[in-house]
Design goal:
The complex is a heterodimer of chains A (291) and B (312). Chain A has 14 helices and no strands. Chain A is mainly α and 291 residues long. Chain A has a domain of 195 residues: MetI-like fold (Orthogonal Bundle). Helix content of chain B is 76%, strand content 1%. A two-stranded antiparallel sheet of chain B has the order 1-2. In chain B, helix 4 packs parallel to helix 9, helix 4 runs antiparallel to helix 12 and helix 6 packs across helix 13. The radius of gyration of chain B is 26 Å and the shape is globular. Classes of the chains: A mainly alpha (291), B mainly alpha (312). At the A-B interface, helix 1, helix 5, helix 6, helix 7 and helix 8 of A face helix 2, helix 4, helix 5, helix 6 and helix 7 of B.
Chain lengths: 291, 312
């Protein structure tokens, strides 16, 4: 393990005389920028407890009492609960399809290198560079032909197809970093190919699996474009489609209700992030550094 | 070592001669799902895209082979020209604004680390994880005329010039409003990514810079940037390729308008394919997006390599 500069950053640089002022200025800038990042998430709370009349009279004054009326109205208008269930199903489906597929393919690429697997490897690597926009039209026509368009499985299967290239590359590099002797030992002990994979190698790849599950989940959680294209039935609308629908139907004319809707829409993601930000950050980093 | 490797190789070769059928079936079985999904949902549609882009195909009438007419029509169409222009402008400005800003924040967070700033990384990343539909919602919350946060604050302080600006309706401003909202949400990833790479720089190099009497900013300019030039290149590619695929935010914030002021290739593709049902035309846009992303990636890699050769 190389010792990195991050471990020792308290050593002073040459400009030690101006260090204190510089540090103060930079810290202030950083804090202000961070405030700008969270401001749009916090400001709705200024408006959300007022009635429309109170808001029109004095938008920035303190609310006289804590009214929950706006939340109730926004909840009904966005109908987010239904959307959340659908989003959750799509996320589960995407994870269940992408992660095993990618793990299996990555394992073969890492441990069975021959002409045949090499060809498949380059094919899947090429798939990494294909933007989904490119194939959208034929994809849509094709999924309607086989009856998959406007269904949740259709949506998550497509997400899976476009997620597999990246994740099989991650799995490949992970399996390559594991010592090959472990697999050899399992083989000598009489385990077949499949047993070696499922009983020995896959449990060792748990960190990669956790990462894949988390990031595939987040990816399909935040998807808007594919849902917009492939889902047209109101009953199947995902959370993002519900939010967009609210955005286009109601607009910002009634600010308190809009603020309540924004809070309701952002809350699940923000809560997820508050609970899991450590893993999410670590996962993103691991994915970014390897990929 | 060498003999060991030789023995292992020899062993592998004898195994191969025996034809390890079971292993081969295992490989087929394990690769099948990936190949199946990609073949069905990616490679088959790619072939179809190229074929359709040369056809006149719409909801009505037959599909007829018309050669390159779709492409010619697109390039003479004002909406498409505008979209292309916006894609290039977006790519340029995101490389010029977002990446340096992210680098500044990332480097400062590391170089001026204290109790307060070490908490900030998680906050910066929060904005990147929020889904684009909700980002658009918050963007309208801030920038809407009359009711938006900026307008209502300006009205409160009697800054009428600011209160009267229509951030989404003014065709010169709309692009920049969307860009600002996008910067808000995209920058978190670049910050976190660059921080991770800066933290990988070995301490020897840092100490060498220290001994030579470098200031923090000299260290950043002459040591850190060359050291992380590869990750920076990746960021630039993500920016430019992302601008080609740009759809969510301009669509949700302005629907590509007013006029064609914020239209992008993704929006034109969606409009042509799913509103006007011009499948052939839309496929041609898909092909153009693909070719441009290929060109962007390749040129960026080769440009950067040339620069690197000059510097080193």
């Amino acid at each position: 393990m190389v010792e990195t500069a991050a471990g020792r950053r308290n050593t002073y640089f040459a400009e030690i005389r101006h260090y204190k002022t510089q540090k103060f200025i930079i810290t202030t800038i950083l804090v202000l920028l961070a405030l700008a990042v969270i401001a749009p998430l916090v400001l709705p709370f200024c408006f959300v407890f007022k009635t429309q009349l109170e808001y029109a009279y004095d938008p920035w004054g303190l609310p006289k009492q804590l009214r929950l009326l706006n939340f109730r109205e926004a909840w009904a208008a966005v109908n987010i609960l239904h959307g959340l269930i659908n989003t959750f199903l799509v996320c589960l489906g995407a994870v269940a399809c992408t992660v095993p597929t990618a793990a299996m393919a990555g394992y073969i690429f890492a441990r069975y290198q021959n002409k045949f697997t090499e060809i498949v490897f380059y094919m899947i690597l090429a798939g990494w560079f294909v933007p989904v926009q490119m194939v959208l039209i034929p994809l849509y026509r094709f999924t309607s032909q086989i009856g998959l368009s406007n269904t949740l499985p259709g949506l998550f299967l497509i997400m899976c197809a476009f997620g597999v290239p990246f994740w099989s590359m991650i799995y490949r590099s992970f399996f390559r970093s594991l010592p090959g002797e472990l697999a050899e030992a399992a083989r000598i002990d009489g385990a077949g190919h499949a047993t070696t994979f499922f009983r020995v190698m896959l449990p060792l790849a748990n960190p990669a699996t956790a990462l894949a599950v988390l990031l595939v989940f987040i990816g399909s959680w935040s998807d808007y474009f594919l849902s917009l294209i492939f889902i047209s039935d109101q009953n199947l609308f995902t959370m993002q489609l519900r939010v967009a629908q609210f955005l286009n139907q109601y607009g910002v004319d009634r600010m308190p209700r809009y603020a309540a809707a924004a809070i309701i829409a952002a809350a699940p993601t923000v809560l997820l992030y508050i609970i899991g930000h450590r893993w999410i950050l670590q996962g993103t980093l691991a994915g970014a550094l390897k990929g | 070592m060498a003999t060991d490797a030789g023995i292992i190789l020899e062993y592998g070769r004898t195994r191969k001669k025996k034809r390890d059928w079971r292993g081969f079936v295992f490989q087929l079985l394990f690769l099948f799902p990936a190949v199946f999904f990609l073949g069905l949902f990616m490679f088959y549609p790619i072939e179809e895209t190229f074929r359709l882009s040369l056809m006149r195909a719409s909801g009505l009438g037959d599909t007829v082979y018309i050669g390159l007419e779709n492409y010619v029509k697109l390039f003479t169409n004002e909406e498409f020209q505008q979209g292309l222009l916006h894609v290039f402008a977006w790519a340029f400005w995101s490389v010029v604004i977002q990446i340096p800003l992210a680098f500044f924040i990332a480097f400062s967070l590391i170089a001026f680390k204290n109790k307060l700033t070490s908490k900030l990384r998680a906050i910066y990343y929060l904005a990147s994880i929020i889904p684009s539909a909700i980002v658009a919602m918050l963007g309208r919350f801030i920038f809407s005329p009359r009711n938006g946060v900026i307008s209502s604050l300006a009205a409160r302080w009697n800054w009428t010039w600011l209160a009267n600006i229509d951030f989404f309706g003014d065709s010169r401003l709309a692009f920049w409003t969307v860009f600002a909202v996008a910067t808000w949400t995209y920058i978190g990833f670049y910050i976190v990514y660059q921080m991770a790479n800066i933290e990988q720089i070995p301490v020897d190099i840092y100490e060498a810079a220290l001994l030579d009497g470098a200031t923090r900013w000299q260290y950043a300019r002459y040591v850190v940037i060359p050291m992380i030039s590869y990750p920076l290149r990746i960021c630039a590619i993500l920016c430019t390729v992302g601008s080609l695929k740009l759809f969510d935010l301009p669509w949700l914030l302005t629907f590509g308008g007013p006029g064609y002021a914020t239209t992008t290739l993704g929006i034109i593709l969606y409009k042509q394919g799913f509103i006007n049902a011009m499948y052939g035309r839309a496929s041609a846009i898909g092909v153009i997006i693909f070719l441009l992303s290929l060109i962007f990636t390749v040129t960026q890699f080769s440009l950067q390599r040339k620069e690197g050769e000059i510097e080193w």
